[in-house]
Amino acid sequence: MSYINPVNCADRPAGAFLAPQEAGQTKKIGDVILDVRNISLRFGGVKALTDISFDVREHEVRSIIGPNGAGKSSMLNCINGVYAQQEGSITFRGRTFKHMNSRAVAEMGIARTFQNLALFKGMSVIENIMTGRNLFMKSNLLLQALRLGPAGREEVRHREFVEHIVDFLEIQQHRSTPVGQLPYGLQKRVDLGRALAMEPKMLLLDEPMAGMNVEEKQDMCRFILDINDEFGTTVVLIEHDMGVVMDISDRVVVLDYGKKIGDGTPDEVRNNEDVINAYLGNSH
Amino acid sequence: MFYRENGQLKTSYQADQQIFPIAQDRWAIIGLVLFAIVAVPLLANEYTFSAILIPFLILSLAALGVNILVGYCGQISMGSGAFMAVGAYAAYNTLVRIDGMPLLLALLSGGFFATVVGMFFGIPSLRVKGLYLAVATLAAQFLSDWAFLRVPWFTNNSTSGSVMVSELQMFSWRIDTAVEKYLFCLGFLIVFAVLAKNLVRSAIGREWMAVRDMDVAAAVIGIRITYAKLSAFAVSSFIIGVAGALWGFVHLGAWEPAAFGLDRSFQLLFIVIIGGMGSIMGSFFGAAFIVILPIVLSQTLPALGNLVGFEVSTAAISHAEFMIFGALIVWFLIVEPHGLAKLWSTGKQKLRLWPFPH
Fold first, then answer.
1. Considering A107, A149, B127, B334, which has the largest number of Cβ atoms within 10 A of its Cβ?
2. Going from the N-terminus, what domains does chain A have, and what CATH number goes with each?
């Protein structure tokens, strides 16, 4: 699939990113790209996360599962720099951080979708996805006001990139619709599109399939697998649909009450005593 | 029927990203601008210029600035009157204190100082939102009321406390008739409207709207919230400052701090709410509404009163004005929070299909 016609972006060589892997090459899981060490996060007296450690390898689909309130979204928020953890560190591609900073995280190539839709309601689909390209837009305010030279060219160039994402996600006919008017499933796609516009190395997906029907889930799975297979983007997935998780994940982390209770391949996790107890309850 | 975009196919993104992608819109706006430049000076009289058209142009300009901050970036500000005052007094001071200062540069310096003050009072926006921010920006209003009344330096030690700009001259053009003043303001408005429109449809405009709509998501996709908010304050206060300078120099000629009081801040906020938050077009609609409504009321209310045999005093008219304003604002907030601009675009949508039902 010719999804992205690479746009030369700032510090990255053209085509290094989101370019399809060489033909015929099967997905190869690489080295550890993200390493989360001993994260603890408290809100006052509430312990949201306690001593969580896990790693994510390049090109893999890594799922985080757990009952509601287990701390899955908080974990992503720590990686994104929305929350600042009290203890622990996060290493991304060899750089270790005590706290993440949202801007730096975005620049390093970590993109994110949200559990409860966090689209920009006042903007159209194209504008929402264009916002994901803002990171690469360098022309200054004055040039933008005059729309002269680089500023005008930049808009056109990034718009072209965004159109490839629109094609990929099959939302062409909704291009200029205000996002608020779209049905829920399509809004989720726009959210994914906005994240893809950042040309991420790693994509954090927070319940991308929540509240969808079977067809919509299948579409979303297809998009996630395409992104992962063809562009080699590492995916961290939070999802409640066990069928999906067990099918598409390479490895799974299980959280419960802010603690890690399981980690491994889907088969290992499925047979883990603690995980079964967390989901089905103990027999007393 | 005549408003169809059939056959207007875009073959480049550039064509698709125009301000007015539909040809009819483009012609309409060109016609309107030509009308404003050529026909209006021939048609209007002295009174229309000084009581309606010039205030309309300057208030539109100020509303444009307020709209960038409140409508596009979602930061409620009650300090607009103060930023206008800073613009007016800074422009006045640069003009009288520096020999041979050109008028244009003085007006722009008004904008520059308003930017500095605006960004300073924008700092609270980094921590507080909504009503709390509105109250924080109110401080700007009180401070400016006090400073321009009590610090003689700002008024060039004028004994009466009011300042005056006697003659306006740009290069060799002496601006003294009402028509010339009108054209001068119109020039400013057109230039700033184009610049503002370009900003809001560019990367920075999307950043402002992203911060307005969902600030956490904006931060996560790499938007620097601090930069977005402060740049909105900066751009907005610059425009408001220039509008303030024009209000003092061109419209009033001589003014006191009361000209830029809290009333002015509220008036600008009303213009933006009635006209349409987050719409450049809305600023014009709102300003036209606010300028014309009192005049219409003062003309029609006595006539209406006479019909039912009731004498309407001027005081009653000004009271009625407030009541009708209040009612309209409540009505707009409930029925159409996006204001007149939204009604306009709904109308255009309908026109595309007219006269067919579907």
1. A107
2. 30-109+201-278 (3.40.50.300), 120-199 (no CATH)
Determine the Cα–Cα distance for residues A79 and A77; give it in Å rounded to an integer: 5
DSSP B15: H
- How far is residue A64 from each of residues A158, A210, A237, A241, measured CA to CA in Å? 33, 14, 6, 11
Whether residue A123 and residue B199 make contact (CB cut-off 8 A), yes or no, is no
Q: By the CB < 8 Å criterion, does B212 face chain A?
A: yes
C-alpha–C-alpha distance, residues B311 and B307, integer Å: 10
Judge contact between A61 and A248, C-beta under 8 A.
yes
Closest residue by Cα to residue A175 from A134, A133, A130: A130
Cis ω for the linkage preceding B355 (within 30 of 0): yes
List the A259-264 sheet strands across, edge first: A110-112, A202-206, A234-238, A61-65, A251-256, A259-264
Per-residue pLDDT of A76-98, as tens digits, reads 999 999 999 999 999 999 999 99
**How confident is the model over A107-144, as pLDDT tens digits?**
999 999 998 889 999 899 999 999 999 999 888 888 88
B48-353 — its CATH code? 1.10.3470
Q: How much is the average pLDDT of A249-258?
A: 93
Domain ranges of chain B: 48-353
Q: What is the DSSP letter of A100?
A: -
- Best of A131, A133, A206 to disrupt the B interface (most B CBs within 10 Å) is A131
pLDDT band at A230 (very low <50, low <70, confident <90, very high): confident
B211 contacts chain A (CB < 8 A)? no
262-321 of B, contacting A, C-beta below 8 A:
278
Q: Which helix (H) or strand (E) holds B297?
A: helix B280-307
Question: Within an 8 Å CB–CB cutoff, is residue A141 touching chain B?
Answer: yes
Q: Which tokens belong to A122?
A: 């006042």
